[in-house]
Specification:
Layout lengths: L2 E7 L5 H16 L5 E7 L11 H9 L14 H5 L2 E4 L2 H10 L3 H4 L2 E3 L19 H23 L3
Parallel strand pairs: 1-2, 1-3, 3-4
Helix pairs in contact: 1-6, 2-6
Amino acid sequence: MKYNILFVCLGNICRSPSGEAVLNAKLKEYGLDKDVFVDSAGTSGYHEGEPADGRMQTHAIKRGFNLTSISRQVSMSDFDKFDYIIAMDQNNYRNLYNLTSVKEYQDKISLMTDFSSLYTGDVPDPYYGGAQGFETVLDILEDSVDGLIESLKSQI
């Protein structure tokens, strides 16, 4: 069975494309890249059609992660397509949850740090901050993705 995973933040130019890139890289490392499809989206369409933020790309590349996604907004069809819909923060979690009243769809939504062994709460939005914000996002994502992969390995 192939799993489909969607990472979601507000604009889909920093956190969620980074989550997508980190998961894709680690899936390849574990030999699981054929078993999982990964995508990202935003709850808003502010940056639709744009590549990931250049600052985020720079920090990700230093760690060996290539952000190739193009921003798009979450659609209702995502609830059918994806097995896991992973929000980067509580606001986007609530926005996703409120998009549908279908319990089966709502049950697919989780918070990124639900999979973390070190972090709780939100993956902070680095957009208006300095360089350390981008590094913090990647630290949280790397740890959370490791937990997500452990969870997936028991199901694949």
